[in-house]
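Objective 1.3, modelling of assemblies. Example input:
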Amino acid sequence: MSEEILQVHNLRVEYYTSKGTLPAVNNVDFSLRAGERFGLVGESGSGKSTLILAILRLIQLPGRIAAGEILLDGVDLAKLSLDEMRRKRLAEIALIPQGAMDSLNPVVRIRDQFKLIMRAHDDSLSKAAITERIAELLKWVGLDNHVADLYPHELSGGMKQRVCIAMAIALRPKVILADEPTSALDVIVQRRVMETLANVQERLGATVLLVGHDMGLMAQFVDRLGVMYGGKLVEVGPVRELFKDPLHPYTQLLIQSLPSLEIQSEFQGVPGLPFSLTDPPSGCQFHPRCPRKMDHCSVLAPQLQEVRPGHWVSCHLY
Amino acid sequence: MNVGALARRLGLFVVVIWAAASFNFIVPRLAPGRDPIQQRLGQMAAQGGYQQQGIDAMVKAYQARFGLDQPLWKQYLSYLGDIARLDFGTSIALFPTKVSDLIIHALPWTIGLLLMSTLLAFTIGTLLGALMAWPRSPRLFQYLVAPLMTLSAVPYYLLGLILVYVFGVIVKVFPISGGYSTGAVPNLSMAFAWDIVKHSILPALSIVLAGVGFWAMGMRAMMVTVEGEGYMLLADAHGLKPRTIFFQYGMRNAILPQFTALALSLGYIVSGSILVEVIFTYPGIGSVLYRAISGADFFVIYGVVFMIVVAIGLATLLIDLVYPLLDPRITYERT
Amino acid sequence: MASLSAFWRYGRRNPKLLGGLLLILVIVLIGLVGRFFVNLDDARPISAMPEMSPTWEHPFGTDGVGRDLFTVMVAAIPLALEVGLLAGAVGLGIGTILGFIAGYKGGMADNIIRGVVDTLLTVPGLVVLITITASIKSVLSVEVMALVVASLAWMWPTRTIRSQVLTMRERAYVKMAKLNGLSTMEIIWQELLPNLLPYLGASYVGAVSSAILASIGLEALGLGPQNEPTIGMTIYWAIANTSLIRGIWWWWLPPILFVIMLFIGLFMISAGLDEVANPRLRRTV
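Predicted structure (tokens):
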């Protein structure tokens, strides 16, 4: 078994609201091996994007990391000072933002944005070195060098997203977090962006944590998959096994709702509505929607346990 | 910016000036009863005095140009011709001083005062507003919101009144009237320059105080909007220094609407400063206008109003021309 | 009356609106109830000794020609509000009509209206009003003043209402109404206007506020109704008689305190209404 590069232990993220504190991420535990591609799926509000922000320590008030460890190469990010954390970002752990977001500064040329982020981590870099590096990075993501001299509004959605990928790998990070990088892009562009991501991942040998709700995309891209529901991780396993033989009833429903494994499609949903975080169900959080509910499900909360080698699930059925 | 758009923008400026000139031509003729200028001139002529001859000549000249003996369009054309040569006639109260001379002497004072205080208010207000919206700012800035909001609602000149009282009656630190000390001879020495600065402090302060709130509120709102943008989050995720994010990502984007607001509020700032000048008897355009109003000196009133409209038109034009350089997304569409 | 109680409940969550309304209410009450405690004739010159400092008999003292300044304030508040409400109504009326034409019809009409409004907005309003009022000073009454001020009070409402109509025109319920065969007027009356009410309210308060600001500014320059005791004329006389440096604070302090209260009140109402109209909103100037 290869080295574990990112370990998340008992991570808990809370949001303060007028109705009390809400756990957006609730005791999540998982770890990524160096060089692997790990996927996280779940409905919106399941806490998957919050989890990514928490790993980068980017949760802002009224939210906070209430408990847990985030070990990056053995260093607990949760214990670093603000400036130490700032230096870790991009240099060791980078973010590729949601495709739907305007993630580039609209009034600064791409070249200058690259300069800013490189200088923030190493202000001794020479101008020539930066220019050379920008050209190289743009080539890696399949963009022409003249793109550097454009403003973001002069780029298409797919080009912007590839610029974001180039920025994320600018300092050759060990871990890349990608938060729905292809949302709001059309299907052909989605595929290109994912190919670009796959390319640079292989080149760098970096670890990728991909968050999304597109099961088809996950099936093609990741090695292992985690399923989140209501801020908790309910199932983790190798992606093929998980698709062939899902254990958790929620995962089963997710996979059944796909028209076919081979066809890429947005996942259509599971009957019923996600519960409200202000009023979580007792016991297993999924029991009100669960087709295989048992009596004690509404009383006792299940724990995530390894039921087969490398395949973990949090359900009383096992 | 391309040539067509530039020409259109300049054309608009010309239209504004033409409209302002025409406005001055029309208003006295729309006044109920007799033409107020003729009325006033008749009044002066009747009063007599040492200026008698001059006034008589002026009445004749006025009637020759604007009298009923000429068709209206001819009057209008000759009037526009005069305006184009910046000939606004002579002052009635200070005969035979030319209106243009009065304006030229007063203009540097007003421009100096307004330029300094508006730039100061804009800079301080914008910075404060950005800091008030910045989550990493000290709490202190949060407490500034309410007082600044209050200040932004108060007209300039009322703060001027309070300042005159505080510094004129209670603590006599700064001079409360005039542009320089009475008896001082204007020259290029440092002492005289300091005298001018001292006299401008209180008038400037009342404009700055009231203006800071306005700019701070606008900037705060824009900054809050900008903080929700994706690029702010990504800047943090890229490990940029908070300082870089604040200036290059936050302020750089949030400040753009402030320039539009500046173009739109110049008229308001100038209007507000007229009364400030009156209160501090500052030797600028506002005081000239005030004296003209109390003396019913119509040629001066029309001349000053016209010049103010032109000056603000020019300043707005300038801001509009500079704006595309600040925001790469704005380019004047081609036609 | 269900809407009133709903409004009251909302007011408690919107302290700016409630505070602003209370502040204005206090001012209005001084103007309205005050009339029963003073003899309004005392607002005329020579009704008392000049330049008397405040006493029980003359709580705000008297001015240089022997007007009782408390009575002047009681008489002046309704006049200031009258100018503001009237000019605001005319300005908002014109602004609403033009805003709807520009926003709903679009095309040529929109281009012309937008061009004229954007141009006029850069013109210094008070300065233009000075030309007008100086020329018709002899016939200025409170009503004429209101109309003069209204002549420049319609641009902001036109601008804001136009952009609101523009976004609303694209909303689903307006499209539904069109598909259901409603006429343009029916859509405007039944769909657009009711939804625009909060914006119209906020625009109205803004228009009233700038109208009062302009009228008091003109009066303070000596360009108000000459025979009425207005707040601005009181400031004008106080400045003209150098009451500031002579330490006659009771002459200038009450009028400017009223003006400051008035503007803060109107500002808070308008900020509060903005929150009603746009719940995501945090503020605006």
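DSSP finds nine helices and twelve strands in chain A.
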